[in-house]
Structures are given as structure tokens and as C-alpha cells.
Design a protein that fits this description.
The structure is a single chain. By secondary structure, this protein is α/β, with parallel strands linked by helices. It has helices spanning 4-11, 17-36, 52-61, 118-126, 145-152, 176-186, 216-226, and strands at residues 45-48, 65-69, 74-75, 80-83, 102-108, 129-140, 188-196, 236-243. The protein has an 8-stranded mixed β-sheet with strand order 3-4-2-1-5-6-8-7, with helices on both faces. It is globular and about 50 Å long. It starts with a helix and ends in a 5-residue tail after the last strand.
């Protein structure tokens, strides 16, 4: 197993060092989830929203990893990349019908960035899964304790929508109950649902450009406290949905 600390050490050498260091434990956790649910050398895998995670999956399991997102169709070091903006899923005539079916589709920290109905987005994603294939979904918990406290203080826990259309921030976050309801509505079987704190709060201000070494003590304290919270109040939701019937 590649430990979160090892991933973080590798991460700090990149241009996006703060972001990747903040998410290193999440990456490590997701790799273990994939292994637990049977991803192997013969699995076909699609990562929606290519990132460092795409490379980590390829390295961990020694397989090609296709991706879906912005840009053009192309061949990458990880696998094939297919161009599609998930917000276009609001119209079924826009859905790509020429893509393969996959044993695993990873949709990590993506759903909250979309303004299109999750029913439509996830219905499209389901067409990319083989019968019995698994969707591994990670997204922030809209009901985490820090967000509840901000509301109590009269502060909006959501960021302002950014000007960059390819990096707009979060349009809508979800609760565990909402996601379970979506899975049932769309015909998925929920195989796993975990709410955990798998981030590193020492790097929480990576997007504002703060140096990684600032507020280290406060970040370390948050790491300890957040991991002791009841699961319903923690920051991250990870779910594994199985496509129990052939997608329409």
C-alpha cells in the first residue's frame, strides 16, 4: 500500500503541490477502496476528470486508465482520453454513445462541480458501466460540522462561483442520504458508504496560495479533531455503487 505520507511527499514536488498534499490521504484511501472491490490487472477503468489520481491508479494496479473530461480525444500516458463536458448530459441527444463499457468508473470530487441535475449526469455515467460494473463516487459532505458551524455564524459555507468555466468551484454539495436516494432512483446497488475525514488540513489554504508551512499547528489540530467526529459530521463521502442491471 502506498501510504498517504508517501503520496504527500511525492506531491509537494509538483506545481499543484498544495492541492495534492491536501488530498493525498484521500487518494490513498480511494486506491484501497478500488482494491477491496476487486479492481485487478484485467479490469477496464475510467477516471472522470483526469488528475494525479489517474496516474496513481495506473501505477498502483499496473493497468491503462482511460479518462473523460475537457479537451480533445487523444491518447495519453495513462490511456485514452475522451472529451465530454458532463454538464452537456442535461440533453440526452448530447450523450456520447461511442465509448467503451468499464468495470470501474471513478468519479472523485467531480459531482459538486456540476450545475446539471445529478440524475441526468449519473444516468449518462451509468451507460459507461458494464453490467455489474462499479461507480466509485467521492464528494464533499454538505452536512459536515465545519459547514454547520459557518451557517450558525451567519457565514455561507459555499464558495462564490469562480470566473473560470473549467474550474468554477462547487455548485452543489450533497448529503449521504441524498446520494443514497439517487443510487436507488437510478437503479444502483450501494455496496459501500463511508463518511470520513481523509484530507490534510495543514494544506487547506492551497487555493489561496498560502505556503504549506503556515498554520501547521492549527491544521494538525484540525486533523486530529475532525477524525474523531461522528461519521455524519465528517468532510468526505465515498460510495461504491454497483450497476446491478444493464444500463439503458
Amino acid at each position: 500500500m502506498r501510504r498517504a505520507s508517501e503520496l504527500s511527499a511525492r506531491a509537494i514536488r509538483g506545481d499543484d503541490q498544495g492541492y495534492v498534499a491536501y488530498h493525498a490521504a484521500r487518494y490513498a484511501y480511494l486506491l484501497e477502496v478500488l482494491a477491496k472491490h476487486g479492481l485487478g490487472t484485467d479490469s477496464k477503468v475510467l477516471d472522470i476528470g483526469p488528475s494525479r489520481l489517474t496516474t496513481l491508479i495506473r501505477e498502483r494496479f499496473g493497468i491503462a486508465v482511460d479518462s473523460l473530461g475537457f479537451g480533445e480525444d487523444r491518447v495519453t500516458a495513462e490511456g485514452r482520453h475522451f472529451a465530454f463536458d458532463l454538464n452537456l448530459a442535461q440533453r440526452r441527444e448530447n450523450w456520447r454513445r461511442d465509448l467503451p463499457r468499464y468495470d470501474f468508473v471513478v468519479m472523485a470530487e467531480v459531482l459538486e462541480h456540476l450545475y446539471t441535475s445529478p440524475q441526468l449526469v449519473l444516468s449518462f455515467v451509468r451507460t459507461l458501466l458494464s453490467d455489474g460494473g462499479r461507480l466509485v463516487l467521492q464528494t464533499p459532505n454538505a452536512a459536515s460540522l465545519p459547514k454547520r458551524l459557518k451557517l450558525l455564524l451567519g457565514r455561507n459555507p459555499s464558495q462564490m462561483i469562480r470566473l473560470d468555466p473549467q474550474n468554477p468551484g462547487h455548485f452543489r454539495e450533497y448529503t449521504r442520504r441524498e446520494l443514497a436516494g439517487l443510487a436507488a432512483e437510478l437503479g444502483f446497488q450501494v455496496e459501500q458508504c463511508t463518511v470520513a475525514f481523509y484530507f490534510d488540513a495543514r494544506f487547506a489554504h492551497h487555493e489561496s496560495g498560502e505556503a504549506a508551512g503556515r498554520k501547521v499547528a492549527l491544521g494538525a489540530l484540525k486533523n486530529a479533531v475532525y477524525r474523531l467526529l461522528p461519521s455524519s459530521l465528517r468532510e468526505g463521502i465515498t460510495m461504491v455503487w454497483r450497476n446491478s442491471k444493464a444500463a439503458i
